[in-house]
Amino acid sequence: MKRIFLLLVSASVASVSCSGGGSSSVGKPGTKGELIPREKTKSFVAERPYGMVAIPAGSFVAGLADQDPTNTPEKAALKTVTVSSFFMDEAETTNAEYRVFINYVRDSIARTMLAEAAGEGGEGKGRGTSIGDYAYLAQKEENLTPYQEYLEGQGGREDGYDPSKKLDWKVPLHWNTNKYPDVEYAEVLESMYLPASSRVGNERILDVSKLKYNYKWGDMDVAIADNQRGVNYLKSESIAIYPDTTVWVKDFHFAYNEPLFEQYFWHKAYKDYPVVGVTWDQARAYCNFRTKLKTDYNESLKRKKQRPMIFRLPTEVEWEYAARGGMQNATYPWGGPYLMDDRGCYLANFKPKRGNYMEDEKKGTYTYTAPVKKFKKNGFGLYDMAGNVAEWTESAYNNSSPAFSSTLNPSTKDKADDKRSVRGGSWKDVGYALMTGARDWERKDSARSYIGFRTVQDIPEAAVKPRRVSR
């Protein structure tokens, strides 16, 4: 009798634990005593993010299959591997796109400082007419839900989110000194600029060293070691995100590149050019920002869906698979074996001849980088997978990684080594570096005038598979 009683208790506990997913539940689960899931069976179609293309799953022979003129140790041994489907940016991340990230961090820091200075707020109309308008939303909202009150009492969620520190983004910021609403506002905003003693020509310049992006990411190695996603799983990062614009001078001694140092990142003429001077960590911070942007949007619409798939850097093998555009043994993203088409036009932005950085001397264009999407896309619909700027990948670099890595979604994650794989070649490289199987690396804390990045997003295996783009 005691055994039967224990079984009944365990069964009741199981029914409670299974019904705590957010929807209300009345009575026991099941239909007519049968275990039948309540979820509707519908095909899941992954939402394609703006500016991305779907890369279908497939297998291919990774490595330099046809030629290796230098016989370097970077050459990867030929190996057949399988890659799952994913979305990938159709072009490299541009200056304009990265500036959205910069402006978001700038505005969030300014709003946080204004909210701290505002305290409990004032009698403003919420239009930015006084510093009181910038108080935290919790200071303005009177009717909090029981869950919001609980989180506020606990000091926030496990991931660091504190509901009492939620910013009011509807109130406009004023960066024009003539529109500062009051003295307290001016004091906060001016603290974000270089002090007068550090200015050149008395020009008001934003102190970019203060533009730090704080975020958390999950360490899967810790989760495996602890056998759970506990408190040690989340790692905090604080990354200074402003690009190193001095790379145009540092990378090339005895060369006059000062105009690019002065203008490349911020001038509107370069808005569609790939961002450079960004480290591996900064590129990963940008990926986290894209994920946060979509997550916040979904929450604002109160969507009852799972959080969006994260944005990240591609693995080295994912990048090579995407660069080949669906072709096996492709020397270049367009196939090959030549760097020019049948009209004698170069197919990528690179250094075609010794001392000559221009692909078209008559037009005199593209001495350095080129605007994205100026050259033909490959079979998957991706631009600039060869030349223009080389691209960071998620993978740690190792000469022997192709030999020991898996044949299913290969990836290397060596935390002890700061080398990261860089792919694609750049505007300053010769044709060999543009080959789809050519490997290169850079230290993850280094910024270069010839390295940029693009992002990817996973497609769930259960989703309706994207079709291969026809050539």
From TrEMBL:
Keywords on record: Oxidoreductase, Signal
Region (Disordered): 400-422
Basic and acidic residues: bias regions: 412-421
Compositionally biased region (Polar residues): 400-411
Record domain Sulfatase-modifying factor enzyme-like: where: 51-456
Entry's Gene Ontology molecular function annotations: formylglycine-generating oxidase activity
Residues spanning the signal sequence: 1-19
Keyword Signal appears in the UniProt entry: yes
EC number, UniProt record: 1.8.3.7
Protein name: Sulfatase modifying factor 1
Species: Chryseobacterium camelliae
